[in-house]
Each structure stands twice: as C-alpha cells, then as structure tokens.
Amino acid sequence: MASTETKGFTSSFGAIAAAVGSAVGLGNIWRFPYICGQYGGGAFLLVYLCFVFFIGMTLMITEFVIGRRTGRTPIFAYESLAPSKKHHWWRYAGLLGLITSFLILALYLVISGWTTNYFAEALIGAHVGHDSSSITEHFNTFSTSALRPIVFIGVFLILTAAVIVGGVQKGIERVSKILMPVLVVLLMVLCVRSATLPGAAAGFAYLFKPDFTLLTGEGVLAALGQALFSLSVGMGVMIVYGSYLPKDDNLLKTSIWITVCDTLIAILAGIAIFPAVFASGQDPAGGPGLVFMTLPVVFNSMNPAEGLPIGTIFESIFFLLLVIAALTSAISLLEAQVAWGDEYNPAGKKSRRLRNTIIISVLMLVLSAILSLSNGAWSNFTIGGKTLFGFVDQLNSIYLPPLCSLCAVIFLGWVVDKKAIKDELSNHGTIAIPWYKAYMFLVRYVAPIALIIVLITGIVNSL
Ligand code: PHE
Predict the structure, then answer these.
(1) Which of 10, 223, 289, 427 is the most buried (most CB within 10 A)?
(2) Does residue 28's CB lie within 6 angstroms of at least one atom of ligand 1?
(3) Among 7, 32, 65, which residue's Cα sits nearest to residue 439?
(4) Is this prediction's pTM over 0.90?
(5) How far apart are CA 270 and CA 198, in angstroms?
(6) Which protein residue's CA is at the shortest distance from atom 10 of ligand 1?
(7) Substitution site in 101, 232, 335 for ligand 1 pocket (most atoms within 8 Å of beta carbon)
(8) Residue with CA at minimum distance from ligand 1 atom 9
(9) Ligand 1 site, residue 329, Cβ cutoff 6 A
C-alpha cells in the first residue's frame, strides 16, 4: 500500500474543496429547500443549524480522526484503530458503511441521471412554452420510462468514473478545485436573479420566517437526517477523505470550513429557488418534484414574449449547477468503493484503480438501472408496499446512516485509546486543542443519544 503522503490531497485548499464537493450535492440544492419549506422555514433552519454544528460536525471530526490516523479505508481503519484483537469485529461497522455508500450511490445516480437529462433539455430549450401541467406530465413520463433515464445515468456515471480513474490528486482534487468555485459563481448568479424579482419577499419569508407550528417531531428527525446526509457523514466516505487529509491540517478548522460552506450553500440554494417560485405564483411546497416540476415553469415565466429566452438560460445554469453539485458528491461515493477495492486486493505497488473503477461502475449501473425501472415498468414489484426505489430510499434515509454514525461515535468515544485521539486531533501535540473535552462530551453522550432517538423513532414510525 502506498503511504498516505503520496496518495493524499496535496494542499489544505484542495482537501477542503474535495470535501465541500462531497458535502454539497443534491442534498443541498434539491432536498434542503423543500424540506425546509415543508417544516416551517426559519423554525426548521434553527433546529438544522444546531444539528449540523453539534452532531454533524462532531461526526465529521470523528470520521476524519478514524481515517487520517490510520490512513486506510473504513473496514481496515476500524480494525487497525481497535485497541486489541478482541475489538476487531468493529471492522463490520466499516463494512456497513461501505454497503451504505454503495446503496446511496445507486439512488444518487438515478436522481443525478434525471438532473443530467434536465440540463440537456434546458440547453436545447425543450421546456420553452410548456405550462405547468404539461411539464408535470413530462416529468412523470420521463422518470417512469425505461430507457432514457438509464442512458442519462450512464452518461453521468462515465463522468464520475473518469474523475476517479484520474486518481486522488489529478482526478478528485483537481476537478474539485475547479468545479467548486464555478458552482459558487453559478449559485450567486441565480440568487441575484431570484432575489431581485418583484414579489421575492414572500419567498424570503417562506424560507426564513419561523413557523413553529409546522415543526413537528417528524420535522426534527428530518433535520437530523438531513444534517448527516448533507455533510456526507455516516457511511465512511469522510473516513476515506480523512485518510487523504494533509497530516498538518487542523481537523477542527477543516471541519468548520466544510460545515459552514455546506450550510451556506444550502441556504443560498433556498434563496435561488423560493423567491423565484413565489414571484411566479407557483406552489412552493412541491416536495421532491420542486426542482423537476415547479422550477421549469418558474424559469419559463421569466422568458420574454420575444427575444432572448433569458429564463431558459437561467434554467440551464440551474441544472448545470445541480449536475456539478451531484458530480462532486458522486465522486466521493464512488471513491469510497474504489479505494476499498484497491486496499482489499492490492496488486503489489501497482494500483488497480482503473480495473476497480470499471468493475464497480458496471455494478452500480446495473443496480441504478434496476432502481430506475422500479419507478416505472417494474413498479409492481414491491417490498412492504414500497417499490424497490422507495425501499432502498427508506433504508438509506432512516436506518443505515444513523446506524453507521452511531457505530462511529461509540467506537471513538468508548473504544479507541484516548491518547491516540488526542494525538491525532492535536497533530502530535503541535496545536492546542482547548475544545477537546467539549468534543469528547459530544462524541460520548450527545451524539449517541440523539442517534439512538432517531433510530428508534424511525423504526417505530415505519412499522
Ligand atoms: N452530501 C451529499 C449531498 O448533500 C450526499 C452524500 C452523502 C455524498 C453521503 C457522499 C456521501 O447531496
């Protein structure tokens, strides 16, 4: 196995760009705005902020410690950080993470395929002149059809795999350093447009004005689930990225950067969407269909009767933004699989990255194609009343990430040798860590209790 020095990210900026790339994804731009609106806007935001900074960030630091300390992928990382042989079974926590990231990637690819299709359609002006009902019908026909979604999953997957084949430095780090600034610029353009439309104020009120009557228990659970998903924690991806972090990076600072960027981008996405939705008189509570069914109508309404179809240009920018966000997240999910393959079956010094990427991508394509078909042709096949897509989605949103997160905090808080944790957090005693006690309190008590509550409630609700 190559040493961490040669395989990891080359700079702090590159590391943060890649990790922010992983964190910022469909979760921020597609999911966050609609659940925020659904559960009381500002009220949801307050709860979300608490969860993201106290629990999500605690988990991120935890995964970084596990990854960077060992320089390995989750299964081996748990095993080698365990204090004695009798704790080696903790490697199954790593395996659970690997399975979770595999399943999440399969779902993620389906939505990313839709996004890529919508970007292509926006570019050629395919939605111009269509009203709300024909756009809704178009989405329903498209997402349940057999071939087209799979073709676009394939296109998106090839892009993702190409970056992974390029390697950690020349692929992931380089691409993230270019795409993340581009993403921020595109998002700013959309925010300015949306926020300056007449009638935008209602959108701001929807997003920020706290309505505590809408913040149900379900909303609080959704906030925690969203915090984990959005920070890409709870499936070992940040253990893998942690193993690539420069040894002298301050883990707390890096985690704060990632968390702040991720949260700001989610809020900006809300600003890019809601004022425009209100300004054009559409329904903001569009749920998951907000992006694919409501927004094309919103953008159409910005098109002048004659001349440059400016709304459609903004639509293309929006879907490009979404493709970029999805791409850098899918890269991290695929990397988690490929890196494991490389470590599991090292071919001497020669990396098997290309071979592993191809094998895993083909498997992923098959699984996502099956999930995609379960929305249409195969929707008769159900598990517990849910289509396969719905079932895997439920596994991924309710059970697996909180379970993996629980394993990580219990492992670090109660099993791993405290000296090793302190040593890693302080970069071998070279930086002060006055926050150590607070962090350990969060890892040992607050995070496990919150995660257990989420898990139990999730299980009870779904019975
Ligand atoms: N954080 C990503 C998003 O917000 C999703 C993701 C989850 C990516 C887990 C990697 C690992 O869309």
Answers:
(1) 223
(2) yes
(3) 65
(4) yes
(5) 17
(6) 232
(7) 232
(8) 232
(9) yes
Structural tokens at position 228: 């984990």
Compute the distance from residue 199 Cα to the ligand 1 centre, in Å: 33
Q: How far is the CA of 385 from the centre of ligand 1 (A)?
A: 27
Considering the segment(s) 12-462 as one domain, its CATH architecture is Up-down Bundle (1.20)
User: Who's near 200: CB < 8 A, 6+ residues apart?
Assistant: 194, 275, 276, 278, 279
- For residue 215, the SS3 value is coil
DSSP string, 405-436: HHHHHHIIIIIS-HHHHHHHHTTTTTS--TTH
Which amino acid does the sequence have at 71? G
Amino acid at 182: V
Q: Which amino acid is at 131?
A: D
Ligand 1 atom, smallest distance to 23 CA: 1
With CA atoms as reference, report the closest residue to 255 among 23, 81, 447. 23
For a ligand 1 pocket test, name from 108, 160, 240, 241 the mutation site with the most ligand atoms within 8 angstroms of its C-beta: 108
Beta-carbon neighbour count of residue 203 at 10 Å? 24
CA dist 222 and 219 (Å) reads: 5
pLDDT tens digit at each of 463 positions of the chain: 444 345 799 999 999 999 999 999 999 998 998 888 888 888 999 999 999 999 999 999 999 999 999 999 999 999 999 999 898 999 999 999 999 999 999 999 999 999 999 999 999 999 999 999 999 999 999 999 999 999 999 999 999 999 999 999 999 999 999 999 999 999 999 999 999 999 999 999 988 888 888 888 888 988 999 999 999 999 999 999 999 999 999 999 999 999 999 999 999 999 999 999 999 888 887 777 889 998 999 999 999 988 889 999 999 999 999 999 999 999 999 999 999 988 876 656 667 899 999 999 999 999 999 999 999 989 889 888 889 998 998 888 788 999 999 999 999 999 999 999 999 999 999 999 999 999 999 999 999 999 999 999 888 887 7
Instruction: Answer yes or no: is the C-beta of 334 below 6 A from any ligand 1 atom.
Output: no
